Amino acid sequence: MEPHEAETFVNKRTLYAPIEPYSSGNLKVSDVHTLYWEQSGKPDGHPVVFLHGGPGGGTAPSNRRFFDPEFYRIVLFDQRGAGKSTPHACLEENTTWDLVNDIEKLREHLKIPEWLVFGGSWRSTLALAYSQSHPDKVTGLVLRGIFLLRKKEIDWFYEGGAAAIYPDAWEEFRDLIPENERGSSLVDAYHKRLNSDDLEIQYAAARAWTKWEMMTAYLRPNLENVQKAEDDKFSLAFARIENHYFVNKGFFPSDSHLLDNVDKIRHIKTTIVQGRYDVCCPMMSAWDLHKAWPEAELKIVYDAGHSANEPGISAELVVANEKMKALMG
Questions:
Q1: C-alpha span between 152 and 214 (Å, rounded)
Q2: What does the pLDDT look like over 17-30, one tens digit per residue?
C-alpha cells in the first residue's frame, strides 16, 4: 500500500451514502428465537458485523453508513426479541451467552471465517463478551461508549447518579414508581411493571424507561431520538430486554468479568471511541478498560455525549473503520 493511500483512509471522516442490502434472511437459532439478518456492501469484501444497542434496540438502515461499501461486507442482525427478529420482546432464552452463540451461528451460516466486530454501549459489552469467547474469529474491534455492565454503571444511570445532570428528565422516570417503592431499586420496580400481566402497564413503563435513555443520549437534545419512546413496539422491546439484562447483571459470573478477561483479546487490534460527556455510559468505564488494556487505542471526543450519531463520534468511528481497512488490505 502506498503512503498516500493510507493517508486518504485516515482523512475520511464522514458517513458513507445510504445503501440497500444485497441479501437478507432469517436464521432459526433456537426452538424459540429466529433472527433477522442482512448483508450490504461488497459481497467478497472484508466481513464486519454490526452489533446493535440496548439490548433490545434493533438495527436501522443508517447503521450501514459507518462502513466503506466498496471494501466491507457489512452484516447487520437483530438480536433476540429485537427489531425484525421473533418473537418480539421475548425474554425466554435471552441471555448474553445466548447472543454470543447466535453471533457464531450467524457467522457459520454466512460462511464467514472471521470478521471485524463493531459495537457501542451495550454493543461494546456484547462485542467484548463475544471476542473473549471467540478471539480467533475476530480480526479487529471498534468499540464506542464503553459499558461493562457493572453495578456502579447501572446505579449511576438508573439509581440517581445521572439525575444530577438531568434532574428534569429524571423526575419523569422516577415518578412512574410510587414513593414507597423507590427506596431499594428502581430497576427492580420497573422490572415488575415491564413484566406485568397488564399490557398497558408494560407500555407505560416501557415508554418512561426508553424516554429517560433517549433524553440523555446526546450532548445536545435530539427530539427525533426522544420521540422513539412513543413507539410502543420499539420501546417495549427496548425496555423489557434491557431491564431483563440489567436485573440479571448481564448474566456474567462476576461484576468485573469483562475486565478480568482482557488478556484473551489483548492481541486484537482495537479502537475505543468515547464521548467525554457521555451520561449513559460515563467515561469511567472506557478509562477502566483503557487502563486494563493500554494496547487498545482510546479516542476521546471532547464535544460529544453518548450517541454514535453525534458528529464527533460518528467521525471517529468512520476513521477507525478506515484505519482497519489499511490493516486488513
A1: 20
A2: 999 999 999 999 99
Q: Measure the CA dihedral 238/241/243/247, to 10°.
A: -170
Which residue, among 248, 173, 251, 262, has the nearest Cα to 209 in the 3D structure? 173
306 catalytic residue (yes or no): yes
CATH topology (fold) of 23-150+252-328: Rossmann fold (3.40.50)
Note whether 40 and 86 are within 8 A (CB).
no
Helix (H) or strand (E) holding 118: strand 115-121
Contact 112, 261 (CB under 8 A): no
Q: Give me the catalytic one of 46, 257, 290, 306.
A: 306
Cα 138 from chain centroid (whole Å): 17
How do the domains of the chain map onto residue ranges? 23-150+252-328, 159-247
> What is the reported pTM?
0.95
The tens digit of pLDDT for each residue in 100-137 reads 999 999 999 999 999 999 999 999 999 999 999 999 99
Catalytic residue among 40, 85, 121, 124: 121
CA-based end-to-end distance of the chain: 8
- 257 as an active site residue: the answer is no
- What values do phi and psi take at 241, rounded to 5? -70, -45
What is the C-alpha to C-alpha distance for residues 68 and 16, in angstroms, rounded to an integer?
A: 7
Given 278, 290, 307, 314, the catalytic residue: 278
d(CA 131, CA 194): 31
Question: How far is residue 51's CA from residue 319's CA, in Å, rounded to a whole number?
Answer: 18
Cβ contact 89:202 at 8 Å: no
Q: Is 235 a catalytic residue?
A: no
Residue in this structure with the C-alpha cell 431499586, named with its chain if needed: 185
